[in-house]
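fyi for ur records
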Amino acid sequence: MTLAQYAMLLIIGWQTYNIARDSGMSVAGASGQLALIGLLQFLPLFFLTPFSGLAADLLDRRTVAKATVALQALCALALAGTTWSGDMGLPVLFSIAVLLGIARAFTGPAISSLAPNLVPKAVLPNAIALGSIAWQAGMIVGPAIGGYFYEVEPALPYGIAFLLFLLSFIALSRIGEVPRSTISGSKRPIGQIIEGLAYVRHNKIVLGSITLDLFAVFLAGATALFPVYARDILQVGAPGLSQLAAAPAIGAALTALWFSFRPLQTGVGPKMLAAVAVFAVATIIFAFSRTMPLSLAALFIIGAADMFSVYIRGSLIQLHTPDEKRGRVSAVSQLTISASNELGDAFSGGLAALFGPVVAVASGGAGALVVVAAYLGLFPELRRARTFDPPDELSMTDIEQRETAP
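which gave:
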């Protein structure tokens, strides 16, 4: 599924930028269209995420995941058809972006909250690392499918994505019954949503982990501007675009592979903060690079540092959250990830439209460094987090009680 998603997203951005440039728009104007694509993917996630998290806790998570994969498969089929017929235009791309945002709003909480039900808690960090390898493998191969196959036939990446979504649907259908926890507390849907949000707010480890990624990647995200760098700065075309998109994924995949064999045991909080700082510095280097080797090296480090942070953040969030709330907490986590990615893409594109792509990426990296410095003081719990161990029963009970406190 990840492979299909990243193949589609890369080509959607590439087509958007090229249609805009070929219609006479400037680099700044075409960058603004990339910003709009990111915004249109984010808005459905923003409005639907509270309900998608509740759906993951109330409904069969396998059914929710299958329905959203089916919707993404239909989007891929529509993109393949319009590209093949020559009817592709910005309105089509914008409409599909909205539908993909709706699908991903429900996919993330359902699938991420399944993992703790499928493996023992003791090996959950290893399972997260292995899942990350699969995710990053999709990020590596997906852009290759997108960029190189687009050179063969523009509709081909979307056709392959449709087949991959179909395989994902079949794989999800083969998952048997999984244990579920019964939701306690409020019986009203709105009350249950509020309880999930309250848990995040009171658990400082979870809140700090989620929001650190939100602000750092929101500011320092450069992926939305890959088409700008590929066409107008590095001038490497669609194959080069694939390489730019694959480089951070390769760094992330190798990092995840390392953790699958050598899981992190100590100093998890400080190391997560350090990884985000490395991510920010590498982003600044990429911003000013004018050679492909240096750009790819910087992006490799960006991916490795990001996966280092993702591995720690994902383990902390899952292990510090009771099962009955994992769907809703995962939804909050997904919302922040989407805000940092899709809304971050919109922010980067808008900033590039105003000040140029180099200033947009470099200033974002600098902003992420400021975020890390601020979190050292705002969330001392992260600085003091030495292991993945969740709080003891007394501490967890205190958190539960604070959710209902005025």
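The radius of gyration is 20 Å. thats all i got for now
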